[in-house]
Each structure stands twice: as structure tokens, then as C-alpha cells.
Amino acid sequence: MKENVYLGHIGINSSLRRARDLIYWPQMSTDIRHYVETCGVCATYAYRQPAESMVMTETPDLPGQKGGADLFSWSGRDYVVIADYHGGFFKLDYL
Predict the structure, then answer these.
(1) Are 38 and 15 a contacting pair, CB within 8 Å?
(2) Is 94 helix (H, G, I), strand (E, B) or coil?
(3) CA torsion through residues 19, 21, 22, 24, sign
(4) What DSSP string runs through 42-93?
(5) Who has greater pLDDT, 3 or 33?
(6) Is the Cβ–Cβ distance between 31 and 25 less than 8 Å?
(7) Please, are residues 89 and 66 in contact by the beta-carbon 8 Å criterion?
(8) Is the pTM of this model over 0.85?
(9) What is the DSSP letter of 29?
(10) How many CB atoms lie within 10 A of CB 29?
(11) Kind plus residue range of the DSSP H or E element containing 35
């Protein structure tokens, strides 16, 4: 049963979560961490890019003081979305 937890090479956290749902054995966390850290496949495909730090922005005092816009395509059509940072209201329109 232990081997089934390791299948898929899904990383330490996902393997631990999966194991906790399926089974328990003494020193389970230590065993899984050791297996994943020494697994050649896991080492080859490990995600190495560090997480980007969060950038905090100030919330405006009044509506309309600060906003944002973004362009995107969906189902072959181009759209623009404009958002107000104060209340989170947005407007969506075709281009």
C-alpha cells in the first residue's frame, strides 16, 4: 500500500495529502519526504521557480480613484474588462 502513495511523482505535499486520505503508518511523513527527496523522477521534474512575493497595494478612499484594465480573448472574441479598485466593480465590453 505504501508504494501506491508514491505513484505519480506528485511531490511531497501532494503525496502527504494523498497518504493521509488513504492510510497511516508510524513515521509516515518522514518516509514520504525521504522517498520524494531521493526519487530520480521527482528530482528531474521538480518545480524550481520560487514563488513571486506578493505586492501590496493601497485601497483607494473613493470610487474612481484607481482602476485597472485587461484584455483577453474568449470563444474567438476579444474583450476588455475595466475594474474599480475601491469597490471591485467591473465593466466588460467587446472590442
Answers:
(1) no
(2) strand
(3) positive
(4) HHHT---SPPPPP---PPPSSTTSSEEEEEEEETTEEEEEEEETTT--EEEE
(5) 33
(6) yes
(7) no
(8) no
(9) H
(10) 12
(11) helix 28-38
Cell of 22: 488513504
Name the β-bridge partners of 80.
Answer: 71, 93
Task: Tell me the pLDDT tens digit for each residue of 63-73.
Answer: 989 999 999 99
> Residue 19 CB: number of other CB atoms within 10 A?
20
Which pLDDT value is given to residue 10? 74
Q: Categorise residue 90: left if φ over 0, alpha if ψ from -120 to 50, beta otherwise.
A: beta
**Beta pairing, strands 90-94 & 67-74:** unpaired
Residue 46, CB-side half-sphere exposure with 13 Å CA sphere: 13
